[in-house]
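Marked as duplicate of an earlier ticket. Keeping the data here for the record.
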Amino acid sequence: MYASTRLLRSQISFFKPFYNGCSIETTRKGQDILGAIAASKYRKNVICKETAFSDFTAEKITPRIKKSNGVFLYLHGGGYVCGKLEYAKAFGITLSAKNGIDSFCAAYRLAPENPFPSALYDALCSFMYLRKSGYEAKNIILCGESAGGGLIYALTFLLKQLKEPLPGGIIAISPWTDLTLSGKSYEYNEKIDPSMTRERLLFYADMYAKNKTDPFVSPIFADTRGFPPSLIFAGGDEILLDDARTMHENLIKSGCKSTLTITPEMWHGYILYGVKEAEKDHDTIRSFTEEILNG
């Protein structure tokens, strides 16, 4: 582990008790501040334009140097409870700048004010908006982290049920795919995870949905046959590790293409922190994106 990454990890671990004890409003404000900081590095390389829908807002990110006509539909994390537009567009800016294609970042409605299925409906609305804007489904790549990583699989399952064309590919970063919290990693990584606790996730899950075995809530219970290729990333030390692993295994069993990368000693959503260990992951994302759009 790089020294800079070790320092960052220790800082995250130090604030873990405070974060997990914060009110929802405080957590939301903190997450938006983190988003603004994370977006600052690449903001000059893109053009941002806000789009307002009846129930939510979104941001269209266009790279100044465009390499392809594809688009990332990016759905942010935050336990379905946190993440306004400033946070929603942060990693979308990074994706566009590094890959040379558009990103569309939806600040979907949040629980507990708007529980399930509000977030899923907003994700569907975003996908259909991109279709109407001229993007072919095969040129739309879904990307999401944490709750957003679960939401992109729920969206794909919904599109399948509606018999709509499916996206060209899926990129999931530390996806939260099982709101029943049944994975064994919730136990064996409990003490070493520097950022997440089971109690906090259960708190978020209870606010988002009553029936946590609903496949649109926990997509590990979904029929994934026919899903497009997936690229899944997870940190070796995060309690949600088995969410990523089980989703990957389900996809493989269903005959789908899926690649799972588990990076040792990394935490939940580590790619979003810009650590040096994630540079290879960005290379993988770039190759995956090029293959989907140019294949």
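See parent ticket for discussion. The chain has one domain: 3-294.
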